[in-house]
């Protein structure tokens, strides 16, 4: 998929995307590496706590204000700093030891969550304090994200990278499966402050894991020297490669419109089905259950192809729209599971293609662009989808969140097909692969 001649020679020559068959016993191959195994176990706790905190903060804002649009603003504040600092964070990732960067940024998360939990538990919390905490956490995430993405390779090497990306997604959504359900129950019984406090503790576990890693077994990338034009160099590099450019374009539509589930699910629980915090936790858990299944399927995926990303984006959009139009409650719940599967397959495919198409010497900067689109898109989309849900209702919010990415993916798919003298075939009779791109008949 990636020809070495597509990019300038030198340190940033691309790594080809390969598709060797995956054996059943290799589904968890990355866990054979001690440092990654330690990291993985810590992330099980950290991601569960993080999902508990997300549910707690979103619901806390809704309780304090009763305004779904402010829930969207809270989501945006956690992601907007990625638009401001994302490119600079990529330079930091390429210049400084990534493990050290992660220790600092995740320690900030421990402190902020501890302070916010104390305010909530003492009954002194105010809306502005929650918004400030969301903004500080968002800044920490913006600096942390490129180093976290690129650090995976330093732990497992390129051969196990795709597997590690899928396992990371799996543990992230395993936390999403357990965290919202536990957090919803805790909010009902003892309040949201304890969910935030738990996240402060689990974040401390993640920092501890980084501190005790076997540094001699890491494979640190060459550090980029300080020089002018490093961000421009990365922009030219990313724009010149289809296997970086198109995943990021697709991601832009999906992240702005289709990755604001906290807003959509809060609106559905509050306005459409009136199920409260327990329902919100249930909805989040169902979506995470589907995503966890998608992560396991992704870990066994043999190839990473643009047509697969297009198909996943289309399916994700259609299922999201169907969730808004579901004629009965059971269909809505089932749609949330399917939504999670499609979202995960798209997300892991896009990230794996981008990372595997980028040389280590420039990967931090390229991943910063990827994450700027991912997190910045959610910042913009949080406000937009929140406003749509508040103004037109959650059903319209779901439909818009699904229809726009699906249409954009179809347009991109047809454009790619025409540019390569191919054609797009959509055939529901082939349920395993309904969307295909094949040579045009003569």
From TrEMBL:
Transmembrane segments: 68-89, 101-121, 127-145, 165-190, 196-213, 246-268, 280-299, 306-323, 329-346, 367-388, 394-417
Localization per record: Cell membrane
Presence of the UniProt keyword Metal-binding in the record: no
Ranges where the Major facilitator superfamily (MFS) profile domain occurs: 23-420
Pfam families, sorted: MFS_3
Single GO cellular component term: plasma membrane
Classification via PROSITE patterns: MFS (PS50850)
Protein name, entry field: MFS transporter
Organism ancestry: Bacteria, Bacillati, Actinomycetota, Actinomycetes, Micrococcales
């Amino acid at each position: 998929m990636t020809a070495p001649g597509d990019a300038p020679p030198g340190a940033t020559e691309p790594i080809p995307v390969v598709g060797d068959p995956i054996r059943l016993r290799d589904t968890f191959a990355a866990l054979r590496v001690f440092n990654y195994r330690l990291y993985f176990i810590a992330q099980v706790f950290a991601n569960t706590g993080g999902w508990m905190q997300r549910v707690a903060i979103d619901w806390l804002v809704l309780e304090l204000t009763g305004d779904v649009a402010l829930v969207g603003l809270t989501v945006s504040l956690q992601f907007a700093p990625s638009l401001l600092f994302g490119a600079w964070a990529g330079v930091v990732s390429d210049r400084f030891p990534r493990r050290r960067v992660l220790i600092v940024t995740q320690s900030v998360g421990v402190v902020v969550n501890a302070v916010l939990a104390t305010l909530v538990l003492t009954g002194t919390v105010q809306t502005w304090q929650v918004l400030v905490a969301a903004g500080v956490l968002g800044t920490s995430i913006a600096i942390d994200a490129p180093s976290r993405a690129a650090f995976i390779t330093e732990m497992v090497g390129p051969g196990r990278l795709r597997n590690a990306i899928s396992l990371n997604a799996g543990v992230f959504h395993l936390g999403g499966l357990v965290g919202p359900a536990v957090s919803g129950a805790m909010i009902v019984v003892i309040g949201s402050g304890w969910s935030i406090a738990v996240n402060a503790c689990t974040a401390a576990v993640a920092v501890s894991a980084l501190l005790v890693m076997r540094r001699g077994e890491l494979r640190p990338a060459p550090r980029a020297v300080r020089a002018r034009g490093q961000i421009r160099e990365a922009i030219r590099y990313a724009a010149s490669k289809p296997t970086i450019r198109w995943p990021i374009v697709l991601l832009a539509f999906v992240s702005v419109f289709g990755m604001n589930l906290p807003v959509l699910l809060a609106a559905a629980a509050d306005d459409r089905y009136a199920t409260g915090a327990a329902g919100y936790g249930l909805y989040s858990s169902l979506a995470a259950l589907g995503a966890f299944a998608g992560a396991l399927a992704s870990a066994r995926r043999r190839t990473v192809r643009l047509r697969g990303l297009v198909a996943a984006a289309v399916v994700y959009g259609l299922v999201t729209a169907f969730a808004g139009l579901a004629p009965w409650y059971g269909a809505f719940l089932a749609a949330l599971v399917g939504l999670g599967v499609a979202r995960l397959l798209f997300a892991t495919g896009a990230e794996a293609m981008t990372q595997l198409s980028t040389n280590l010497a420039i990967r931090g900067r390229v991943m910063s662009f990827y994450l700027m689109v991912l997190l910045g898109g959610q910042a913009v989309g949080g406000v937009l989808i929140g406003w749509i849900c508040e103004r037109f209702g959650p059903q319209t919010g779901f439909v818009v969140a699904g229809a726009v990415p699906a249409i954009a993916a179809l347009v991109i798919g047809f454009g790619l097909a025409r540019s390569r003298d191919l054609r797009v075939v959509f055939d529901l009779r082939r349920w395993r692969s309904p969307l295909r791109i094949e040579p045009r008949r003569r």
